[in-house]
Structure formats: structure tokens, C-alpha cells
Amino acid sequence: MPDAYGDSAGAGTATGDDIPRAAPTPPEDTQPSAEARADERRFRIYTMAVLTLGLAAAGAVSVWLPFDGSSHLWWIGPLLAVAFLGAEQLGVNVDVRSGISWTISFTEIPLVIGLLVAPFEVVLAAHVIAGVATLLARKVTGRVLYNAGAFLLEVTSAFAVAGVVRQALGSPEYMPWLAALAGTLTAPLASTLLAMAAVRVLRRRMRVGTVVRLAGRILVVGFVNASVGLTGYLVISKTPEAWPIVLAVSLGLAALYWAYSDLLREQRDMEALTDVSLMVARSGQQAAARPAGKVDDIADDVDLDEWSTIAERIRDQLAAARIVLRLRLEPDEPMRTVVVGDEPATPTPEPGSDDPLLRLPGSHVRHLRATEANPQIRSALLDRGASEALAVPLRSANQLLGIVEAHDRLSRWRGFGKYDVQLLGTMASHLATALDNRRLLATLRHDAYHDPLTGLLNRPGFRQVAAEPLREAEHSVVLRVDLDVFSTVSDALGYTWADRMLMAAGRRMRDSLGPAVPLARLEGASFAVLLTDGDARRAQEVAQRLRAHIAAPYPVDRLTVEANAVVGYVATSAGENAERVDVDSLLQRADMAVRATRGGEEVKAYVPSMGQIFLRRFQMVTQFRQAIEEGQVTVHYQPKVALPGKQVLGVEALVRWQHPEFGRVDPDEFVPAVEAAGLVGVLTSFVLDTALDRVRRWLDEGLRISVAVNLSVRNLADADFPSRVAESLERFGVPGELLTLELTESGVMQDPERALPILRGLSALGIELAVDDFGTGYSSLAYLRQLPVDQVKIDKSFVFGMGTDLGDLAVVRSIVELGHSLGLTVVAEGVEEDLARDQLEAMGCDVAQGYLISRPLAEDRLEAWLQARTVRSLDRTSEAVLTLLT
């Protein structure tokens, strides 16, 4: 039966927000709010009304149904009291929704039997004594009078309805089973009406549909329980020896109730865990999708809103009055506090304060009660306006990531139980893992878009940050600043002092520009600045000021180094911005302006006449096909070696151009020009055929050495490219596994829907696919799993600094672990020192490539290198392998 001293479908149905509960005593220095005091006054009046009505109704029914028992049945009263106590202790609590719980109790069984065998006064006394004793045993003393009135009205209404039905059936001498059944079903309905009235008194709302559904469930469960009790009584009264069967049926019914409640609880817990995990994952993805360097109040508000939703879901599952999340969302930032639910009596203490709940050791859930805790814990709970709390620290590798607190379960008597502790512990584990992953992602993303030396944006970061302001600005200016004493300092004093000069120059520029202006270190001693609120005149002023600041002397140890700087800038109009001038083009023009500074002119604006460089590019593009035919363009090879076995696994094919007029042309100069002119197919086919021919000759010599060829973004837009590669493999008789095609992730993500089918077609040929320059793309972690790749190549910018920069070392280690977790081979570029090779080998990196092994070599020099530095042997498959000599 739904009763008044359980989380029942009667008086206890609408618990928490919908029903009064025992409120904690506020601390001496705090006062409850005016609204809370008004609610308390209204409920005291309502309590007295319920108690008065219960006493009056009990007196009226007692007169109407006078006591007619006999003294030899004195044992019925104590037996019924024990039965009521036992039935309530065996109750099964089911959470319906936040703040509403429904107890399937068995008090209908002793009540229906009491209606049949005992006088009204005896049943009433047994029920009240059992109910009050239960409340006192559970230390719920704040609502005893209200519950006592509810107990009186439950039994009184049951006997009143049973008496009316008995008279209607014309049976004044005994209680018919139908009358007992009707009276039993009346008791929970009376309890429910009291609960709904309490909701209205406290000015809380509960939907009519919810009330109707709950009343229906009450009647169904009450009817089943009453029927079991009634049937058992009738069977035993006629056949006393049948009591074991009746007991077995009753125990079976209880087992079914418990199994149902456990199943429902597990289902809701799993749903809550899934919801919380998905919410945290989405929060991390949205944070990662923000542009590099974009940290503002709006982003902070979005983060807090997302975590408020997560806290609300946890509160809903635990049926808690309040959830407090204290989280450190980003490394090296203070914790933020999110409070969902009832406002605390005093502001929640901040992390770092002398609060015992914020200094809990370990990472397991603590169940704290004000009535049982030490004075410090009790004071902390009362400061929060809570009588009990679940608290769990979120930790990763002994580092505190946050704290979760759940205050006061929404129930009049039932506090947090073992299932709540287990659920919050599991949720906390999920949250800690998600926060740790989010911090790792933030670190990797920061490192990918920021210069590790100065902390400023790098080129990819500047490109990303500047893209949107350039589209929206009426006028914009891009400045390139070069500290041209850098190489001199490096040669004279070493790179350590040169790096210190760069860091000092970056700080000077940041102080001059302010925190809001995008500032990047491009490479070497070159910096870039974006101004979106100025014209050419302001650009000239800013350029002069920056040059003056960073050209001031630099104190280096006991020396003072005189520095010099040059600035080139390009200003765009609204019309040019409408045409979406990209960042790289503006940087290129600013670089032209820097190169045009001569004869003491340190600041120069870009003018179209500086476009002579484009003429050079035009000449290279128009002469490219002829250069291939005449042998000016050649392919060099850089070996790749396995770690730790030192076997030569393959080579990377790198294009070189020895121009008769311009001399040796750097690939960084002519490859972009060839791509822009639409000749990348010619270049790729030349390199691919040359490389496959070399592999074929190695196969004829009994060697299986693979070759890697770089792809352009334009190759990934060519639907016929896989078929042409397949034709080349067939023509040279080279198996697909001996060809590796390298691509940059930024190239793939320009048009992923178009590129992915091309990559899948290449992968179907057995070709190895590698992501080049990994760690410098747009969102490597977010998109890597979508690509059908086999290898990742760590960008050499991270490998260079491994020996001296712990940040670079951590990034490389993270990429190695990430690649292996995805089943990928990890290749490190730019290995130039023994220390770097040893560190990579210790991390488990698979392949190394760099000047430590060999520079890119022409074909004839590569053959000489292989003969001089390798030893040839047979492996277990009788295939020849080359191993570096030590």
C-alpha cells in the first residue's frame, strides 16, 4: 500500500520539489529566504489541518463502528503492528522522475486482513504506531505530525468505505471480502490526495497527466497486493494447512517487485550514464571546433551552459535537491563552479578555501550526513544548506580535475542509498576520463596552432584565426615583421641566446599590440600581425611603432645586442575583402614588401610593381613541361629506417629542379606554382612513374623497398586518379603494398566528401596511405579516424625540439600513442640527432626519417649510399633486406 511514511505513491509520491521534506537546520549566521519561511508557515498550517481532520474522522468512525472485540484477541493489535512494520521494511522504491519516487509496499496485505479480523481502533493504533516508529527509526522527525495525520486518514477512510459497502451489501454481522477490498484501495487514494494538496500548499506544480498515471499505478498495485492478502486469508481460514502455498505466492510476488525495480533502476542508470557521456563528448568536440586562440566570454558561457545541462541530468537521475560541479575545463585555469537546483543558503565555497569537502582525498564517493559527521563536515554541509551530501573528487594521475557534489535526495525520509553512491561513482569516472581527454585535446590543439618557443600563433593558427576577420572587415592590414639580426646572433652566441631574443621580441610585440590583435611567429625570426580596423595610414603607424619596439637593444648576458627589424605590410579594401583574399596571399604580398626593403628603408608597403616574383613563377610554370622533358626535373630519394631494427624499409621520392636560368629552384617555390597552374597531374605522374621504375629495378635485384610519393590536394579532387595509379602499378609490375601515397590532412579536409572516395579507391589497390605533417592540420584528432590511412608522419617541427622542449616531447609521445591506438604505423620526420632517434625508439615509434640517416639523394648517390652503409641479408621469407651498418 502507498503509505505516508515511505516514498510512496500516496503522501510520499510527489517528493522533493512537489512535497515537503524535513529541512536542515540553517547555521546560526544564515537565515532562510522569505519564500522558504512562507512555505514553512503554510505547511505548518496544512499539517495541523491534516492532523485535526484525521483525529475528527477517527472519532466519528469510532462512534459509527464501536469496538466489539474480546479480550482473548489482545494479540491481534501487536501482530498487526509488526505486520505493518515488516511490510514497510520490505518496500521497493522506484524512481518515476526527478523528485518523484513511488514505493511498492505491502501494507495493503495487513490492512485488508485487519479489516476482516480486527476492530477499527486496533488497526488504527497498529498503523499509527508502526508509521511513527518507522519515521523515528529513520531519524525523520521534521514531519511526524503531518504523517500521523496522514496515517489516521488512511485507516479511517479505509474503514469508512468498507463500512458503507458492507451496509450496501446487507451484511451487518461480518465484513464481506468485497467491502474489505474496497476499503483497502481507498487508503492509498486518500494518501495521494493529501500529497497533491501538499503540492498546492507549497505552490509547486505537478501535471494532471502525471497525477492520473500515478493514481492508476496505485490502484493496480494496491489491487494486486490486497488480492494476495485477501486470497491468502480466505484460503488459510478454510484450509489452515495451505499457509505454505500462500506464503510462497507472497514471496514470489515480492521477488517480482524487486526484480522489476532493479531492472528499472539499471535501465535508468545506463540511460543516464549514456546521456552524460554523450553530453561531455559533445562539449569537448564543440570546444575543439572553436578557432585557434578564440577564448572569450561567449565561449565561457557556452561551456557553462553545456555543463549545467550535464549537471541537470545527474540531478535528475539521483533525484537530488542540488548538484554542484567544480571543474577545471582547460589546463592552467581556475576551476569554474556550476550549481543546478535549489540555491544554497550561502554562496558555495570556492576551490582553495578551507573547506573539508573540497579537500577530500582519493577519488571515491563519500556519503556525508550532518547528523553523523564530525564538526567540520557538519559545518560545511550546513553552510551549503544540506543535511546530507555525496561528494567525489575527479582525478587523473593524482591531478585534481574537479569535484562533484550532490546535496539532499528529494525525499521525505529516504536519503542517498548504495545505488546512488555506485551511480555517482561511475558517472564521476566517466567525467574524469572525459575531462582528461578534453585537456589532452586542448593541449594537442594548442600545440598544433601555436609556436612552442614564443607561445604565439604559428602559421596554421594565424591562418585560421585571421580567416573570419578578413571576410568581415571593411579594411584590413597584414604585416610581416622580420628580426634580421637573428642569424647573426645564432652564429655568434648559439641558438639558445637567439631563442631568448625571439621570445623577448614576441613579448615586446604583444605588449605593443595588446592581447586582442592576432600575432604569429611564422618561421625563424618572422612574425605576422593582422589589423582589421585600420587603413594604410594606420598600418604605417603601427609598423613604425612595432619596428621601433623590437629593434631596441637586447641585453644578452653581459652583452647588449643591437638589433634591427624590417616590416612589410599589405592593406586590403572592402572590395578586395569581398573577393575573399586569403591569408596566405596577403602574407605573400607582405613578404614581397619585406624583401623590397633596401638602403635603410625599414618599413615598406606592398605595391603591385612588386609582382615581379609572379613573373618568375609564370616563367617556371610555362617552362615546367619542357623542364621535365629535358631532364631538369629529377627525383631524389630520402631513406626511411625501421626502429629499432634499422632495416631500410623504403624511401620518400622528392622532386628537384635545376633551372638553367634561376639555378636550383626550391620545391616550396615551384610546387605551389605548378599546383596553381593545374599541372600537378603532370608532376605527380612524372614522380610516380620514376619512383615505380626504381622499385621495379630493386625487385629485379631481389630487394623489396617501398617508395613514398607526395600527393597534392588537386590529386584528391581527380576522380580518375585511382585508375591511373592502378595502370602505373600494372605497367611496372609493382605490388600496391610497395607504394605509399602521402597527403596532408589540411588538403583532405578542404573537400572531405570529394576526397574520401578517392582515398578509398587508392586503399582498395593495397596502397599504403600516410598523413604527412601530422599535428599541423586543422583538426587532426577529430578527422583522423574517418580517413582510410595506414600511417601518420609526425611533423618535423615537433621532432626538432624533442631534446630541449618538454612540450614537443609530450606532443610526439601523444601522437605515437594515438597512432598505435588506432592501429597505424608512426613515422617521424626530421630526425637529425642521435638523442631524438633514441627517444623515438623508446616511445615505440616505428620508422625514422631525417638527416641523421641521410639527406635526399639522387638515384646514383642513393645506390652508392646503400652499398656503403647497409648490409644485405635474407629474412624468414627468403626476401633480401638492407640493414644499416652500426
From TrEMBL:
PROSITE patterns: EAL, GGDEF. The chain crosses the membrane at residues 45-65, 111-137, 144-165, 177-202, 214-236, 242-260. Pfam families: EAL, GAF, GGDEF. Keywords: Membrane, Transmembrane, Transmembrane helix. Residues 1-37 are annotated as: Disordered. GO terms for molecular function: cyclic-guanylate-specific phosphodiesterase activity. Residues 617-870 form the EAL domain. Residues 1-17 have a biased composition (Low complexity). CDD domains: EAL, GGDEF. Residues 474-608 form the GGDEF domain. InterPro entries: Cyclic-di-GMP_PDE-like (IPR050706), EAL_dom (IPR001633), EAL_sf (IPR035919), GAF (IPR003018), GAF-like_dom_sf (IPR029016), GGDEF_dom (IPR000160), Nucleotide_cyclase (IPR029787), Rev_trsase/Diguanyl_cyclase (IPR043128). This is Diguanylate phosphodiesterase. SUPFAM superfamilies: EAL domain-like, GAF domain-like, Nucleotide cyclase. It comes from Saccharomonospora piscinae.
